[in-house]
TrEMBL record:
Segments forming domain SAC3/GANP/THP3 conserved: 1-286
Pfam families: SAC3_GANP (PF03399)
GO biological process: mRNA export from nucleus
Domain of life the protein comes from: Eukaryota
Record's protein name: SAC3/GANP/THP3 conserved domain-containing protein
PANTHER family, per the entry: 80 KDA MCM3-ASSOCIATED PROTEIN, GERMINAL-CENTER ASSOCIATED NUCLEAR PROTEIN
Length: 297
């Protein structure tokens, strides 16, 4: 999974990840996975033996998912190391897909797994600070994965090859751009089966809810119809949508209004009552001293 030359260089430079070591900290060569390296203008093209074969790329991805991804730690520092390792190794796989000029079912399957990884990590690591997890960089990598899939689906469809997973990822593509007023034009370019699929229809309904400022409908659609990964990719909108919804409520009802706390935190998808109270406090809304189940301005 790692070229011999890279192995020697990384050992000398002490660039070995904990995920490539035995429990006692010693290097385990069978766990080494090729890491991502940026291309430079003066960098020589990789030699054939430095590129992994299609089969080896599949094996590398399978190893990463089974032995690293499924073993996510709970500690924040360890979680950051876990993500950095997965990002570097999956980015290297995507780079080699380009270098090998792969445009087949294997390439699609590999890039789809990379996209799912970035979708899940956007949610799983959202509470980490910027110094530990760069959400913008993760979103950029997700967007590149979805762009690559866009081209792969179109190129292979021209050859009569279509994928059952296309609707899923076309839906993610729309969900990543819910505030884009031109998204409908993009959807109209999809194949009819994809355009009429549940993931794409849901994405369009979510986009319509946000653009029409129907925040309750936005959360209701997610709660009722969305899969876990669809909720993960839409989680990036939660803080903004909750803030806009609360501001609208406070403006519409005016001062001295009373609201049921349980209804607010459930309808607007806060984690719990305490999470809702923190956001409400920003707008000068506190728990009612006479009834803790209500809040008032």
């Amino acid at each position: 999974m790692c070229p011999e030359k890279e192995r020697y260089v990384r050992v000398v430079q002490k660039r070995i990840s904990p995920y490539e070591c035995n429990p006692d900290g010693s290097l385990n060569p069978s766990r080494l996975v090729k890491e991502y390296a940026r291309s430079a203008a003066d960098q020589d093209k990789p030699l054939p033996h430095e590129l992994r074969s299609k089969e080896l790329l599949e094996n590398s991805m399978g190893y990463l998912l089974k032995h690293v991804f499924d073993c996510a730690p709970n500690n924040e520092d360890d979680l950051a190391v876990w993500y950095d390792f997965l990002w570097s190794r999956t980015r290297a796989i995507r780079k080699e897909i380009t270098q090998l000029m792969l445009t087949d079912k294997t390439a699609v399957a590999l890039v789809e797994r990379c996209a799912r990884l970035h979708i899940l990590c956007a949610y799983k690591l959202c509470r980490l600070g910027f110094e530990k997890f760069d959400q913008n960089m993760n979103t950029e990598n997700l967007a590149k994965c979805l762009q690559s899939l866009r081209h792969l689906y179109e190129d292979l469809a021209a050859q009569g090859i279509v994928f059952d997973t296309e609707a899923e990822f076309r839906g993610y593509d729309v969900m990543l751009h819910l505030y884009d007023s031109n998204i409908l034009r993009q959807v109209l370019s999809y194949r009819k089966e994809v355009r009429d699929s549940r993931p794409v229809r849901l994405a369009l309904q979510l986009s319509s809810a946000l653009q029409n400022k129907n925040y309750v409908r936005f959360f209701r659609l997610l709660r009722r119809d969305a899969t876990f990964l669809q909720c993960c990719i839409c989680h990036r909108y939660f803080n903004t949508v909750q803030a806009k919804a609360l501001l609208t409520m406070m403006t519409a009802y005016g001062r001295n209004s009373v609201f049921p706390l349980d209804t607010i935190w459930r309808v607007l998808a806060f984690d719990d009552r305490e999470d809702a109270l923190k956001s409400l406090a920003v707008y000068g809304v506190q728990q009612n001293d006479m009834d803790y189940n209500q809040v008032c301005q």
